[in-house]
């Protein structure tokens, strides 16, 4: 990462285009050092993600689904004072790594009030502070010193003290090294200092070209990396940081390899089992040969390599008597007969596993970064071994993540794997809630909670269910829907399978623009 003052300056320009005068609808805490701010502006929703870790301090608008179920006193303070407020401005303190969000709140008692949410992107000192009238209301990291800057509620707020100059006009006549450039001007990282010094550029001469160096796993607002490195370019900083975050968190390759390996194994087994079944069925005809031996009227103690009965020739073991040959054939018949039911059971079990792993393929395609933790848990009972999962993590399982879409007239819950589907259908949903699923193909279970199921809700739910399914690229997609009270889990089947008899079906085409508006 190279988040310096110039990076912050350009990031603010991008954030203003999306968040200027947006309403802060909801504040959530993802984990110990990450917060999610959900904004609404001109019919669109935006998710601002802020990380406060020493080695991962970033702020960007994310397009990914995010699980946020942590809580803290600082989160309570944020919710109390600025949830529902209007973001009136975003600014930078001089050219430092400090972003100031100014919110306006209309209080029915105290009238119009102004709060400032200050993000300090300062490495191990990365922090988030809520300030009003130059007083700290609350701060994520609280610190007390005998003198100087205090980070405590009710303390006076002060910016980091610095005697550096703003980087707007660099005088290269006084600069002899990149290190001197960095120590003289505020907000210049070592990487940027080397680049600026080499080309003797002013800050306003740098052209925006967000670049992700894949070899070093670093990013910046322009290409300041080694020409020999493999790079990826983006249109904006948020999408670049979102991609960095996604790459850091997930990799679907190991899941895909495991699923394909298991599918190959089960499909080969299916061929072998069906071959065994055909052979067993053929062995049932042996009984007729044994019966004919006894019906022949011949001396059962004699030996022969073959006999003819009713124009049928029966091959025999010449070392055995006719009686012994007949008994041997009966044993083969009974063995074949006993084997058929177990083979049929194995075929059914194996076909269920093939169906399950084909569903896993669909679920993997549907999974975003945040869904993969639940998806991995679905694979573990079938032999997948997680390299990252520790015993401690196994003991402390959290509720599955579920995609939630809230409208004025309904709330939609979408499961993207077996764990999530089971959770929303049998734990989250009530008997009178509605369940949607694409007909006859793998896909998400979708639950609708609403006081009345209108045509608008049905069409939206059906489109979401169709989009999150294997049939998403088809047209006129059939989607079944019914109330939860009619849904029953199929016992003894791997994964999460249900059956229902009372239902209706709607045929829906996916409108990409509508889907995008639903999911953003």
Query: How many β strands by DSSP?
Result: 22
> What is the class of the largest domain in the CATH system?
Mainly Beta
Rg result: 34 Å
Low-confidence stretches: 390-396
Keywords:
single chain, 520 residues, alpha+beta, ibrinogen binding protein from staphylococcus aureus fold, Helix Hairpins, 4 domains, six-stranded antiparallel sheet, five-stranded antiparallel sheet, 13 helices, 22 strands, 23% strand, elongated
Write the layout of secondary structure elements.
Layout (H helix, E strand, L loop, with lengths): L4 H15 L3 E9 L2 E8 L2 E10 L2 E7 L10 H10 L3 E7 L5 E10 L3 E10 L6 E6 L2 E5 L38 H7 L5 H10 L11 E3 L4 E3 L10 E3 L3 H13 L3 H31 L2 H10 L10 E4 L2 E4 L6 H45 L5 H8 L11 H5 L7 E4 L4 E4 L3 H11 L5 E5 L7 E4 L5 H13 L9 E7 L4 E2 L8 E2 L4 E5 L3 H8 L1
Antiparallel strand pairs: 1-2, 2-3, 3-4, 5-6, 6-7, 7-8, 8-9, 10-11, 10-12, 13-14, 15-16, 16-18, 17-18, 17-19, 19-22, 20-21
Helix pairs in contact: 3-4, 6-8, 7-8
């Amino acid at each position: 990462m190279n988040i310096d003052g110039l990076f912050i300056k350009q990031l603010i320009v991008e954030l203003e285009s999306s968040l200027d005068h947006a309403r802060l609808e909801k504040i959530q805490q993802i984990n110990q050092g990450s917060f999610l701010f959900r904004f609404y502006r001109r019919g669109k929703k935006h998710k601002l993600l802020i990380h406060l870790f020493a080695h991962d301090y970033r702020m960007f608008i994310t397009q990914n689904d995010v699980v946020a179920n942590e809580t803290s006193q600082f989160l309570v303070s944020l919710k109390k004072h600025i949830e529902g407020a209007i973001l009136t401005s975003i600014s930078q303190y001089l050219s430092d790594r400090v972003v100031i969000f100014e919110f306006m709140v209309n209080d029915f008692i105290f009238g119009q009030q102004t709060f400032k949410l200050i993000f300090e992107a300062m490495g191990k000192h990365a922090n988030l502070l809520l300030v009003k009238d130059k007083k700290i209301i609350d701060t994520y990291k609280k610190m007390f010193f005998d003198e100087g800057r205090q980070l405590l509620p009710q303390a006076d707020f002060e910016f980091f003290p610095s005697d550096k100059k703003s980087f707007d006009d660099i005088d290269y006549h006084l600069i002899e090294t990149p290190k001197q450039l960095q120590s003289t001007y505020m907000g210049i990282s070592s990487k940027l200092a080397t680049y600026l010094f080499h080309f003797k550029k002013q800050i306003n001469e740098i052209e925006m070209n967000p670049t992700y160096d894949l070899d070093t796993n670093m990013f910046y607002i322009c290409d300041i990396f080694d020409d020999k490195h493999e790079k990826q370019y983006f249109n904006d900083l948020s999408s670049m940081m979102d991609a960095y975050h996604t790459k850091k968190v997930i990799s679907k390759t190991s899941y895909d390899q495991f699923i394909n390996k298991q599918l190959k194994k089960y499909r080969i087994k299916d061929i072998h089992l069906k071959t065994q079944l055909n052979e067993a069925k053929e062995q049932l005809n042996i009984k007729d040969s044994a019966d004919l031996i006894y019906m022949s009227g011949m001396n059962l103690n004699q030996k022969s390599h073959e006999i003819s009965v009713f124009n049928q020739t029966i091959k025999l073991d010449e070392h055995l008597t006719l009686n012994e040959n007949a008994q041997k054939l009966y044993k083969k018949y009974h063995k074949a007969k006993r084997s058929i039911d177990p083979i049929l059971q194995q075929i059914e079990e194996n076909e269920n596993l093939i169906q399950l792993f084909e569903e896993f393929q669909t679920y993997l395609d549907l999974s975003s970064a945040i869904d993969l933790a639940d998806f991995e848990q679905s694979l573990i009972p079938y032999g997948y071994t997680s390299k990252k999962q520790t015993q401690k993590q196994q003991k402390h399982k959290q509720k599955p993540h579920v995609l939630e879409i809230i409208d004025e007239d309904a709330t939609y819950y979408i499961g993207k794997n077996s764990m999530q589907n089971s959770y929303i259908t049998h734990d989250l949903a009530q008997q009178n809630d509605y369940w949607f699923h694409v007909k006859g193909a793998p896909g998400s279970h979708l639950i609708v909670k609403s006081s009345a199921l209108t045509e608008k809700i049905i069409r939206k739910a059906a489109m979401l269910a169709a989009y999150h399914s294997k049939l998403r690229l088809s047209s006129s997609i059939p989607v079944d829907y019914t109330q939860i009270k009619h849904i029953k889990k199929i016992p003894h089947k791997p994964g999460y399978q249900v059956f229902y008899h009372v239902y209706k079906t709607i045929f829906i085409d996916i409108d990409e623009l509508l889907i995008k508006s639903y999911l953003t």
